[in-house]
Amino acid sequence: MRITIAYNLRTDDSEATAELLSSDDIDRVYRAISSLQHTVTVVEVTGNPHQVIEQLVESEPDLIFNLAEGTIGSSREAFYPGLYEQMGIPFTGGNASLLHLNLDKHLAKTVLAARGIRVPKGILMTGKNRQIDEELRYPLIIKPNSEGSSKGITQKSVVESKKEADQRIGEILSQYPEGLVVEEFITGRELSVPFIEGYPGKILDIVEHTFDLEKIGGRFNIYDYDMKQGGEAARAVQAICPARIDTYEERAVLQMAKQVFDIMTCPDLGRVDIRLHTDGTPYFIELNPLPSLHPDASLMTAAKERGLEFRDVMRLIIRSAARRYGMAIRPARKNKKNRNPSLSPRSSVRDLGIQIGRMSPGLINAITDVKGVRVGHFTRIEDNVLIPGQTGTSSIRTGVTAIMPAGQTYANRIAAGGFVLNGVGEMSGLTQVLETGWLETPIVLTNSHSVGRVHAGVIQHMSRKYPTMGTETDVILPVVGEADDSFLNDVRIGSCSAQDTIKAIEAASSGPVPQGSIGAGIGMTSFDFAGGIGTSSRTFDLPEGSGFTIGVLVLSNFGKMRNLTIDGAVVGRQLDTEFDYAARREASEGSIIVVVATDVPLISSQLNRIARRAALGLGRTGSYAASTSGEIIIAFSTGNRKPRPARSESSFINLKCISDNHINIAYEAVIEATEEAVLNAIFCSGGMNGRQQRWCPAIPQDRIIDLLNKGREIHESH
């Protein structure tokens, strides 16, 4: 199944963004769902709705795994489920009406109270109505009506007199103009009842949160904002599951939770928060149909008690949603033992503490940091394959890597350019890109003898997607780049088919990009070490906005060990004396394809210049653009588009571009990202074998670090 994870990224530590998710949260969910053998794409849905819709459509999901909390207004959580419904895309969790209702705490309690659910007495207070009902008994708790994650809740939220209440209301009402809930504070215990629809019995064990108030100098056992954000206050909180309450209290709490879930029809997952009064009476506090999936959150705490791992919870949520929509789920395949240890992923350059350049990488440090860009691989590894027309056998080490530019690129072309540093190589479709300045197809990479078949695969894929292509609209010229993997791959039998190409395209996803010996890079050699696919990114700010990104992906198959340069140090001089010459590639100088993506608004001529600077990044690693080597670079910007056909009768289109007075930072970014991408292609490979029992070793990471450290010591001593 193709699953798209939709989320809002938390970019700072402010209270305003407390409900949003960190990159670690997203990576955890991504890895868990991917481990269930689904094809996973990650889409950050903050920002322009038109772009969000485009990204969601481009990801072609069977199901959206919804984690989006929203960022604007009291209906923010409901916006995304409503959007998915209008787009006709199945999604996990509650619908728009459920999320809208339950983000409005006072309204949700009013509805449930009308159905016989016990709730604390309270009122909704707004700027127009600041009168506290005299029938309310102190202590009262005052909290935002339309917030989650305990935003706006502190130890000061519980007040014991009208004077304290008026003071607290004055402090926070302007901060939360949607209104405040002012209700009787239920002295007692803080309980949560998690719900997973796909689990037998649905309702999990009750979780109790206890508070060591002496540690923090608090007065009331409430789960306030500081406690939820970690740090010292969080150490005062302990989650106990199952809750230590008597049988009568447990029965009453579970019965209330079941009634709430029945009334609200909360699909797939949820959590009911209940206060258990000191007299044993439960009171409904809130229903969260979009509960936290953090490992320490109530739902996961209760799941662990039932023996469920994180990935099991993801599986149950997906299965529940699939059943609701009548979708078939492919059963998870058991992991087969990897017979080729060379395929094990290794640490990237940055993971090892080697910092390339001065600029900051993007969240993932990959080309997919550019919103909407996706990457997919298809890898062919076979041994003892019969050579056509002969009696002997040989080995296949080849593949396809597809880079999917953001949005519907055929229907909405994106600005593009390129540069050929040395032309002993091929990139079909590049001449049209250079002539017109637009990109309209995926960019697909493979080996030298597979260009034709891969070209056909792109056409097949796009013909299915756009049935009128070539009849009612014009034809396409797919962009297909190649490098020669014949040192390890027997090209007489090791070619990739059109179907292999389609598999790579369909596997494309956002998020982390597997690097090293994989996809089109499985049989490639870089600086006499194994490794073909590498990626990196850089982010920077401009006066008109922050968070611009340039990402680079390379198919690296060039270089001599003696020239390998890392962070300015020519470590290859020493390595060259430590490795056997006899096993190295000598007949070919190889090639490299560089793909540059950015969200900086650029026009074609500027992208041509960006592509030239990527060549400087190659030079930093030790490239000298050998006579028989192809160094071909293509660059595109998601910041400028041209629809097909034109949306108006005007003779002109409007483009936006960065001033050349401010473009230097983009030049620096692409140089750094290219340099690091080439190095990642090598560092992330565990070595690769191939035809005629050839072997390309993995780069010795520990030895590299040792050489770099010695170089720094010598420099500092002088």
Please provide a written account of the structure.
- The model is unreliable at 330-342 (pLDDT under 50).
- The chain contains 18 helices and 27 strands.
- It is 28% helix and 24% strand.
- Helix 3 (76-87) runs antiparallel to helix 4, helix 13 crosses helix 14 and helix 16 (604-621) crosses helix 17 (664-683).
- With 718 residues, the protein is α+β, with helices and mostly antiparallel strands.
Task: Provide the fold topology.
Layout: E1 2-7, H1 23-34, E2 39-44, H2 49-59, E3 63-66, H3 76-87, H4 96-103, H5 105-114, E4 122-125, E5 140-144, E6 158-159, H6 162-172, E7 180-184, E8 188-196, E9 207-211, H7 213-216, H8 225-228, E10 237-240, H9 247-264, E11 269-277, E12 282-288, H10 298-305, H11 310-325, E13 374-386, E14 393-404, E15 412-423, E16 427-428, H12 430-436, E17 438-439, E18 443-447, H13 451-465, E19 479-483, H14 498-506, E20 525-526, E21 529-530, E22 533-542, E23 545-558, H15 572-575, E24 590-598, H16 604-621, E25 630-643, H17 664-683, E26 688-689, E27 695-696, H18 701-717
Parallel strand pairs: 1-2, 1-3, 18-19, 24-25
Antiparallel strand pairs: 4-7, 5-6, 5-7, 8-9, 8-11, 9-10, 11-12, 13-14, 14-18, 15-17, 15-25, 16-19, 20-21, 22-23, 23-24, 26-27
* Residue share in helix: 25-40%
Query: What best-fitting shape do the alpha-carbon axes yield?
Result: elongated
Strand order in the largest sheet: 17-15-25-24-23-22
Compute the gyration radius: what is it? Answer: 29 Å
Structural class: alpha+beta
Distance between the termini: 59 Å
Output mean pLDDT: 89
The number of distinct helices, counting runs of at least 4 residues, comes to: 18
Major beta sheet, specifics?
A: 6 strands, mixed
Residues in β-strands, percent: 15-25%
Give the low-confidence spans. 330-342
Number of beta-strand segments: 27
